Amino acid sequence: MAEAISNTSPLLYLYRIGAIDWLAEIFQSVWVPNAVVLELREGQRKGHDVPVPSNYGWLKVVDPNGDGARSRRRASPCGERLGSCSTRRLDG
After folding, report:
1. Residue 40 above 90 pLDDT?
2. Which terminal CB of the chain, N or C, has fewer other CB atoms within 10 Å?
3. pLDDT at 55 over 80
4. How far apart are CA 42 and CA 27, in angstroms?
5. Which residue has the higher pLDDT, 28 or 74?
């Protein structure tokens, strides 16, 4: 199963339509930089309904500049892969 890297938008919008768990069906794990966690916390602080990354075991917070960053660069960008998977899911 593939792995993916995501920014805040795919997580937020899939969460809002009740489909964030699609990511776990499509990907073995989804990596997000700590900046995504901080953005989601800020949204929560402002009273927005946002996903809490620690509630999703398949969501991994990573340091894009830390050890292993080179191997993580081979993962699919979440939005790119999700678009093709969503189309197959809806059509098939």
Report:
1. yes
2. C
3. yes
4. 26
5. 28
Residue 75 CA to residue 78 CA, distance in Å, equals: 9
Which DSSP symbol is given to 2?
-
Is residue 12 within 8 A of residue 40, CB to CB? The reply is yes
Residue 86 confidence (pLDDT) above 70:
no
List of residues 6+ apart from 1 with CB closer than 8 A? 27, 28
Q: Which residues are CB-neighbours of 54 under 8 A, at least 6 positions away?
A: none
Beta bridge mates, 4: 30, 76
**Token digits for 40?**
């989601």
Q: For tokens 């999703």, name the residue.
A: 56
How many Cα atoms are found within 13 Å in the side-chain-facing hemisphere of 85?
A: 17
Q: Which domain holds residue 84?
A: 3-91
